[in-house]
């Protein structure tokens, strides 16, 4: 239904679960990134960990899980960078973006039938140049990293909040803007996501 004419039209869109991206930062201020082959571009890309939100899973947990699965690093306490609409022309889902200080448990390569990742540590000082010269060109990764860099340069990145207070708790920290407060999420009832019968392999995210 057109909001301008109230006329009905036929459109094709993709109904997908939400996605997550996480910027993992080591104690040495290196970004934990991954190289992986993308079938769409037929090229190896340089990205941050990310993927789909599983049914019943909080995005913050998805981000931490994807980070560990793809890099071997453990995200200590993820902080929110906000939500983005990945592609409003085709998708109605959200990309939840986070950053976190990570433990020194990695690096670790991840392999499956459809996905293989190799960990690469990028010094924070090199990040802007890699974004500007196109070395990092995945649009959703770029958007997340630019948000992170903007807050880092403005001194708005906080990496000293306490870890999860008890098993099952997961603190979500909003960016430190006026009027925003810390939100604590404890054990939650399951959240079920519905989507059309369209299978999207995680390798495309």
What features would you highlight for this structure?
single chain; 205 residues; alpha+beta; four-stranded mixed β-sheet; 3 helices; 10 strands; 17% helix; globular
Quick structural summary:
The chain is an alpha+beta fold. It is 17% helix and 26% strand. It has helices at 59-71, 127-132, 139-153; strands spanning 19-25, 30-38, 43-47, 50-52, 79-84, 95-101, 110-111, 116-123, 170-172, 183-185.
Descriptive overview:
The protein is α+β, with helices and mostly antiparallel strands and 205 residues long. It contains three helices and ten strands; from the N terminus they run ββββαββββααββ. Strands 4-1-6-5 form a four-stranded mixed sheet. The chain has a four-stranded antiparallel sheet with strand order 3-2-8-7. Strand 2 and strand 3 form a beta hairpin. The model is unreliable at 161-200 (pLDDT under 50).
Tell me the layout of helices and strands:
Blueprint: E1 19-25, E2 30-38, E3 43-47, E4 50-52, H1 59-71, E5 79-84, E6 95-101, E7 110-111, E8 116-123, H2 127-132, H3 139-153, E9 170-172, E10 183-185
Parallel strand pairs: 1-6
Antiparallel strand pairs: 1-4, 2-3, 2-8, 5-6, 7-8, 9-10
């Amino acid at each position: 239904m057109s909001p301008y004419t109230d006329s009905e039209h036929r459109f094709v869109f993709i109904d997908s679960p939400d996605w997550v991206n996480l910027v993992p930062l080591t104690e040495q201020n290196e970004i934990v990134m991954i190289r992986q082959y993308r079938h769409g571009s037929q090229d190896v890309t340089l990205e941050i960990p990310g993927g789909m939100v599983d049914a019943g899973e909080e995005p913050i947990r998805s981000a931490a899980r994807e980070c560990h699965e793809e890099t071997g690093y453990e995200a200590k306490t993820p902080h929110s960078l906000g939500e983005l609409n990945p592609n409003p022309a085709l998708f109605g889902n959200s990309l939840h973006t986070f950053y976190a200080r990570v433990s020194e448990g990695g690096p670790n390569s991840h392999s499956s039938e459809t996905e293989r990742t190799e960990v690469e540590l990028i010094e924070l000082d090199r990040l802007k140049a890699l974004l500007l010269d196109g070395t990092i060109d995945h649009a959703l990764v770029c958007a997340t990293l630019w948000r992170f860099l903007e807050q880092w340069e403005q001194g708005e990145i906080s990496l000293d909040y306490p870890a999860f207070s008890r098993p099952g708790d997961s603190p979500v920290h909003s960016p430190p803007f006026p009027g925003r407060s810390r939100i604590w999420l404890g054990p939650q009832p399951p959240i079920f996501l519905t989507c059309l019968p369209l299978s999207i392999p995680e390798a495309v995210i």
